[in-house]
Amino acid sequence: MASPKNDKSTRTTGRPTLNEVARRAGVSPITASRALRGVSTVAEELAERVRQAASELGYVANPAARALASAQSHAVAVLVPSLSNQLFVDTLEAIHSVLRPQGLEVLIGNFHYSRDEEENLIRNYLAYQPRGLLLTGFERTESARRMVEASGIPCVYMMDLDHGAGLHCVGFSQLSAGAAAAEHLLSRGRHRLAYVGAQLDQRTLLRGEGFRRALQKAGCYDPALELLTPRPSSVGLGGEMFSQLLASHPQVDGIFFGNDDLAQGALLEAMRRGVKIPEQVAVLGFNDLPSSEFMVPRLSSIRTPREAIGRRAAEQLLALINGKPVGEPVLDLGFELKVRESS
Amino acid sequence: MASPKNDKSTRTTGRPTLNEVARRAGVSPITASRALRGVSTVAEELAERVRQAASELGYVANPAARALASAQSHAVAVLVPSLSNQLFVDTLEAIHSVLRPQGLEVLIGNFHYSRDEEENLIRNYLAYQPRGLLLTGFERTESARRMVEASGIPCVYMMDLDHGAGLHCVGFSQLSAGAAAAEHLLSRGRHRLAYVGAQLDQRTLLRGEGFRRALQKAGCYDPALELLTPRPSSVGLGGEMFSQLLASHPQVDGIFFGNDDLAQGALLEAMRRGVKIPEQVAVLGFNDLPSSEFMVPRLSSIRTPREAIGRRAAEQLLALINGKPVGEPVLDLGFELKVRESS
DNA sequence: TTGTAAGCGTTATCAT
DNA sequence: ATGATAACGCTTACAA
User: Fold this and answer.
1) What's the CA–C1' distance between A77 and D11, in Å?
2) What is the C-alpha to C-alpha distance for residues B256 and B258, in angstroms, rounded to an integer?
3) Is the CB of A276 under 7 A from strand D?
4) What count of other Cβ atoms lies within 10 Å of the Cβ of residue A298?
5) Average of per-residue pLDDT across A293-313
6) pLDDT digits over B56-98, tens only?
């Protein structure tokens, strides 16, 4: 047939395809593909012609076709338990900042601290054949664990290190952080110490565990001073739990909160009740959220390296994806005690 | 060839395909496809066999193949200016809650209040051929605007209504909200009123505009009492701007903050300086973030219907996608003045 | 270095 | 109601 109707390479409707770019550049589609991806060796002159044509046409590769043909997408899936905690938002930002420049899309999955939701997200996102996975912590369903393993897709675990033997993980020891909190409060001469935690994910529990062990070592652990609730962490909840604790155990002289929002709520409630912080009760938060240093009194907190965790985890994943040597599989980024006015 | 090697339908490696499901159910692939999608009419008995086979195999459709074949993905792209503002996180949650049950993936794009970033995200996400688009506000590059229009993909605009003639939008009038803020402060007998805004996106500006117009109408507008900065909104910044305002204009007796975090910072700074709120200065915030009602004094704020905006916008988009009748193209969800202790 | 041919897994189209 | 066939747009062989 001489007539070019239905000729793919000259179609003028819809988005431009690789065929059209190739035709305009006077090369074969595969050469255009190679030139645009910068792989293989394409003569610089041809490559330039292709890039030119693509740009003139406003060509953007069809990710579906690409993923189908190569059995690989350009996406990386990141699963976090919450977006209401600034912690994860900051981590996500850092991840973006290293992955986007590499041409990778970042698929964000929020599983709301629910293992089932996480499992579903993993199943769904795995179907996209992502290049890599960034997961939070080690706590998940058996089924989710198996899917990840069976997929063979590179995966880096963020936030915790304590049970990550054999896995690539970037974070800090939640146990040690809890212990550091206890030691700090102890060093302030406080001995009736409480731990207040919400959400009750693995990491909150681990922090409490580290805190408890340190107190036991110091011989002043009192199980009655552990206040835990599965309710989501919030400023309002922090105030409530603070009140409850003071009512039931008025002798408490130091409190470690599993997250800064709880501690902030306690500070606010203390002000309302005229409870002197830190004189009557020392308050220590966790994560050092941006607003904490502006509280009255300024909140002491344990600063966690959330940006660094995101960045390093993404970098490690990149190395894994590209088959480059990965340094330490377990990256301990530590934490920093910020002593301010509340403790 | 009698030998079945390379027979697609019996391959046992990698993820199961539609072919394998079909073979196991004893039907053709297209019937399996139809049964699984619940479209067209497939005999209930066959459909059941297919579902059974799929479930046994743990079949999950390949979204790339699906998108390529149908020229449509199952994704909806949502673009927000920030995730650091709880406002957008709550909106996203609501969107998820209506779209996920419909089998739609939600692609989150954070453009950091940058028009260029937004344009890039639009270009990228459009390549995925999403079923719909959820955008924030009306402020974007010409190029972005054209891409959206040319794509023909259904789009709903969130948050603002003031310049959305002819578009599907769900939100409230930022102008009216600003005016309401002024009227409230005026009704409290305050006349030296300031507006403090950060980030300077369209909506912040519009709020200021509404506030200003109301003051002009009341005959007490003073341009010196408008403090604007492009820096990102935060508690720390709120404290700074509050100090700056008091230093340069000690006579101010009421301040409207463009976002609650700024107002919270002001409250905290006021406490530090011994400035009585609301006696010396009334403080009114915006958005009514969850922690605002726990501030000391409790922060008065304008509560914006962020969850409802997300939900209704998603529902409207769904209607558009399914070609169902859309009610009002412009949905005004209003706002609510929460008068607490700070004003 | 470039191109040809085939196929990735699904759905649209058109038969039956 | 079900199926055969041909795309969808790209990339992986492999060949030249």
Assistant:
1) 23
2) 7
3) no
4) 17
5) 98
6) 999 999 999 999 999 999 999 999 999 999 999 999 999 999 9
Q: What percent of chain B has pLDDT over 70?
A: 96
**How distant is C1' of C7 from CA of A5, in Å?**
25
Going by C-alpha positions, the residue among B196, B180, B181 that lies closest to residue B265 is B196
Q: Which residues of A touch B261 (CB under 8 A)?
A: 291
Tell me which chain A residues have a C-beta less than 8 angstroms from the C-beta of B124.
60, 105
pLDDT at site B2: 33
pLDDT band at A113 (very low <50, low <70, confident <90, very high): very high
pLDDT at A7 over 80: no
- What does the pLDDT average to over A145-164? 94
Pairwise CB contact (< 8 Å): A234 & B290? yes
The residues in B 123-162 lying below 8 A from A, measured between CB atoms, are 123-124, 126-129
Three-class secondary structure of residue A322 per DSSP:
coil
Chain A 270-329, residues with CB within 8 Å of chain B CB atoms: 271-272, 290-291, 293-296
Å separating the CA of residue A8 from the C1' of nucleotide C14: 21
Nearest-CA distance B328 → chain A (Å):
30
| Backbone φ and ψ of A183, nearest 5° | -60, -40
- The pLDDT tens digits for A78-109 are 999 999 999 999 999 999 999 999 999 999 99
Of A258, A253, A307, nearest to A276 by C-alpha is A253
Confidence of residue B265 (pLDDT cuts 50, 70, 90): very high
- The b-or-e profile of A121-146 (16+ CB within 10 A means b, else e) is bbebbbbbbbbbbbbbbbbbeeebee
Q: Which of A63-72, A318-327, B138-147, B273-282 has the lowest mean pLDDT?
A: A318-327
Sign for the CA dihedral angle at B268, B271, B273, B277 comes to positive
For B64, the closest of A68, A89, A295 (CB atoms) is A68
Residue A22: pLDDT over 80: yes
Interface contact flag, A64 B61, Cβ < 8 Å = no
Q: Which residues are CB-contacts of A13 (< 8 A; sequence separation ≥ 6)?
A: none
Alpha-carbon distance of A250 to A243, in angstroms, equals: 10
pTM of the model as a whole:
0.93
| Protein-contacted bases of chain C (C-beta within 7 A) | 1-5, 7-13
Residue B336, phi then psi, degrees to nearest 5? -135, 130
Nearest CA distance, A264 vs chain B (angstrom): 9
The whole-angstrom separation of Cα A251 and Cα A218 is 18
Report H helices in chain A: 18-25, 29-37, 44-57, 63-70, 86-99, 115-126, 142-151, 174-187, 202-217, 235-248, 260-273, 306-321
**Percent of chain A surpassing pLDDT 70:** 96
Is the CB atom of residue A27 positioned under 7 angstroms from any atom of strand C?
yes
CA distance to A238, B79, B166, per residue, from B310 (Å): 28, 12, 20
3-state secondary structure of B319: helix
A64 CA, D11 C1': Å apart: 12
Name the residue among B101, B100, B120 with its Cα closest to residue B110.
Answer: B120
What span, in angstroms and rounded, lies between the C-alpha atoms of B235 and A295? Answer: 9
Write down which residues 202-221 in B have CB closer than 7 A to strand C.
none
Q: Is the CB of A106 under 7 A from strand C?
A: no
Of B60, B67, B271, nearest to A296 by CB-CB distance is B271
Per-residue pLDDT at A208 exceeds 50: yes
pLDDT at A91: 98
The gap from C-alpha A328 to its chain's centroid, in whole angstroms, comes to 19
Q: What is the mean pLDDT of residues A244-251?
A: 97
